[in-house]
Specification:
By secondary structure, the chain is mainly α. Among the domains are: about 100 residues, no CATH class; about 40 residues. About 70% of the residues lie in helices and about 0% in strands. α2 runs antiparallel to α3 and α2 packs across α4. The longest helix is centred in the last third of the chain and has 38 residues. The protein is globular and about 50 Å long.
Length: about 200
């Protein structure tokens, strides 16, 4: 998918590599890195070797479908090899980038968080930013208010403790699916209103 887009952009022949193998691997790390480096902080508890093999196989296959060549695939190899690669990328790539806090990336992250908050109200930008900085082992420059502190504490408590219990995970999954469907319905309503407005503008 990503490789396909990259090839189309490369057809412009402007000498720019829009989506490289490295770019796609960095994107892959965003999903795989936290799983192997700090599983408890993302709600993973009591996983067996088979569980990790399964999730790495999933992301290895997903990376392949995205267009990542096997020799660059972050999930290629044993668990220890993947762990070593993720640690290396964390210190050499992610930490320096996060510390710089590129303004455009911050705006994108804020907007993404606002969208996700429709599904998970606990996701305020300061709370989620603090949690992400904690994942990579850096102090967060974003100041939190009282509500943000409460949201952060609840996120941390849920991920590190509540997600240990099967019933909680089932309830969270069901609630998340329900919220996603509700968000989709709201989006459809918004699009329908927008279509009606466009029609009215055409006839006015």
């Amino acid at each position: 998918m990503h490789a396909g887009v990259g090839k189309k952009m490369a057809a412009l022949n402007d000498g720019v590599v829009y989506i490289s193998q490295w770019d796609m691997v960095l994107g892959q790390w965003a999903f795989v890195g936290p799983i192997v480096l700090c599983p408890s902080l993302v709600g993973l508890h009591g996983w067996t070797n088979d569980d990790y093999d399964a999730i790495l196989h999933f992301w290895r296959t997903t990376g392949y479908l995205f267009g990542i060549e096997d020799k660059y695939n972050l999930c290629q190899g044993s668990y220890n090899q993947v762990l070593t690669a993720c640690e290396s990328m964390l210190h050499k790539e992610y930490k320096p980038v996060v510390e710089k806090s590129d303004p455009i990336s911050v705006v994108l992250a804020k907007n993404s968080t606002e969208a996700m908050s429709m599904v998970v109200p606990l996701y305020t930008w300061p709370a989620l930013a603090t949690y992400i900085y904690e994942l990579v082992g850096l102090p967060c420059p974003v100041k939190m208010g009282i509500i943000d502190n409460i949201c952060y504490s609840l996120i941390h408590f849920m991920m590190t403790f509540l997600m240990k219990f099967d019933r909680v995970r089932v309830c969270v999954n069901k609630l998340t699916r329900w919220k996603i469907k509700a968000a989709e319905r709201k989006d459809l309503q918004f699009m329908e209103k927008k279509d009606v407005q466009l029609l009215l503008e055409q006839y006015n």
